[in-house]
Structure formats: structure tokens, C-alpha cells
Amino acid sequence: MAHGNGAAPLIEAIGLQKRYGATLAVKGVDLAVYPGEIVGFLGPNGAGKTTTIKMLTGLLRPSAGTARIGGFDIQREPLQAKALLGYVPDQPYLPDKLTAREYIQLIAGLYRLDPRQAAQRGEELLHLFGLAERGDELLGSYSHGMRQKAVVIGALLHDPRAFFLDEPTVGLDPRSARLIKDMLRQVANQGTAVLMSTHILEIAERMCDRVIIINAGVIVAAGTLEELRAGGQASLEDIFLTLTGGAEAAAIAEALR
Ligand SMILES: Nc1ncnc2c1ncn2[C@@H]1O[C@H](COP(=O)(O)OP(=O)(O)OP(=O)(O)O)[C@@H](O)[C@H]1O
Ligand SMILES: [Mg+2]
């Protein structure tokens, strides 16, 4: 196992809570992702996935608890922590008036990367995602999937050690989803920790070494699929429905079959 060798976690949440007004949306989340792991973050709509990821990446201040990236507290040591992380948000922003190559230059500047190395890494990524020939076109003219890839390229440019993706495969064709899968494995093989939220159980099943299931702001299960299945349930879907929705959700799923 990736974390059997005693390595320290690259992504760590300790008692993370987030309160929105009177509502406690995230109720004390503990999780850890280790070098080389791809972890799926699963849960129904409104469970707290995006809120947790935003606290881990420093975009939201936790109401309580600690988030650490590579051992650095994201609130107290934000510069060190943020230098190590890459983030693909659920609703990514792209500057439509820039071309993909100009966007790469922009990100390189923001991270103060060596311009030549960043350009080379950018070209590698453009080729990997099949965008090299369209790298001089405006991002505003890109299709949804192409935009998604451009966001991923931007998030990977500085070689993050901790990589977060919030619903990265929504709206992607099967080939692009496969590309993301292969790309994540490549990134993980270089020792990066990957935490990816998804609704699509099949994706978690195919892409992830481990899953963490959150429901109503509480982690209800964590482990490898084998470990979760040891409870006697065959498919991840059954496990997911049982742990999150209970009988009601299972009945809806059954009715839709
Ligand atoms: N800015 C906000 N103000 C108030 N409540 C919020 C805010 N953002 C999220 N919430 C609430 O917090 C809870 C968790 O939301 P969150 O977006 O983290 O869920 P999620 O698991 O990412 O859901 P989805 O699968 O739909 O993306 C929800 O009840 C949501 O309504
Ligand atoms: Mg979300």
C-alpha cells in the first residue's frame, strides 16, 4: 500500500468543521491522503465535498480544525502549503481572452516558475491532452471538455505534490475521462497525493485506490473497495446507497433500473 511505508500524508484534515450560519455543513472531518495515492471523495449532493476541498485548499477558512498540505498548515503557512497544491475546482475559471499557451505563461508567472521550464512542461501537457495544435486558440472558443483539460493543465504546471479535483469528469466524453484517469495515475506514480470528488461510482471504482464517503458532513466510510466490500456488499453503488441514502435512495435507484 502507498501508505504502508511510513510516509507522512501530503493531504491531511484534522477535525475540520464548517459552519454556514446556523448550519454545520462539515462536522469534524478527519482524512489523510498519502504520496502516490488516488483517493475518491464520494457523497450525495450537499454532503460537504466541495466545502471540505475548499478548506483543504485554503479557499475557505474552517470554523474549527486544521488542514495541512505537505505538513504545512494551510491557514498559518499558506504560502508553503499553496505552493505544494494543485486544484481543479468544480466551476473553473478560465480567462477566455487568452490562448491556452498564454494561459500557461500566466500561471507560470503566478507561481514564479522558470519561464522556459514552464513552457516545456506546458507543451508536454498540451500534447498529453491533445491540445497542442489548438494551443494558440482562445480559451473562450474551447468546448467544455477542452476547457476542462486546459484547467487541469494549468493546475499541474507547477508539479503539485497534493492534487485536488472537484468533479473533474463531469461532461467529459469517455475518451477524455480515460485520459484524466491515465493522467492521474501518472501524477500519482510520481508521488503526488490525489483527492478527487465524484458522484460517478464507476469512476471511483476504476480510478481510485481508496474511497472516502461523506454524508451530511460526516465521514461514514473509508477504505479500499475490498475493505468496504468485506461488509458483504458487492458493488460500490450498494455500499454508497446504504451508507448515504439508506433504504429510500436504494428504492429510488431500484425504481429507475
Ligand atoms: N456559501 C454557502 N452558504 C451557505 N451554505 C452553503 C454554502 N456553500 C455550501 N453550503 C451548504 O453546505 C452543504 C455542503 O455543500 P457542498 O457544496 O460542500 O456539498 P457537495 O458535497 O460538494 O455537493 P455536490 O455533490 O452537490 O457538489 C450544503 O448543505 C450546502 O447547501
Ligand atoms: Mg460539490
Please provide a written account of the structure.
- With 257 residues, the protein is of the alpha/beta class.
- The protein has a single domain (11-256), classed as Rossmann fold (3-Layer(aba) Sandwich).
- Helix content is 39%, strand content 24%.
- Helix 3 packs across helix 4 (115-128).
- It is globular, with a radius of gyration of 18 Å.
- The two termini are 36 Å apart.
- It binds adenosine-5'-triphosphate and magnesium ion.
- Residues 49-50, 90, 166 line the site of magnesium ion (MG).
What is the topological layout?
Layout: E1 11-20, E2 23-33, E3 38-42, H1 49-56, E4 64-69, E5 72-73, H2 78-83, E6 85-88, H3 100-110, H4 115-128, H5 144-156, E7 162-166, H6 174-189, E8 193-198, H7 201-207, E9 210-215, E10 218-223, H8 225-229, H9 236-256
Parallel strand pairs: 3-8, 3-9, 6-7, 7-8
Antiparallel strand pairs: 1-2, 1-4, 4-5, 9-10
Helix pairs in contact: 3-4
The structure holds adenosine-5'-triphosphate and magnesium ion (MG).
Residues 49-50, 90, 166 line the site of magnesium ion.
List keywords for this structure.
Rossmann fold, binds magnesium ion, binds adenosine-5'-triphosphate, six-stranded mixed sheet, 24% strand, 257 residues, 9 helices, globular, four-stranded antiparallel sheet, alpha/beta
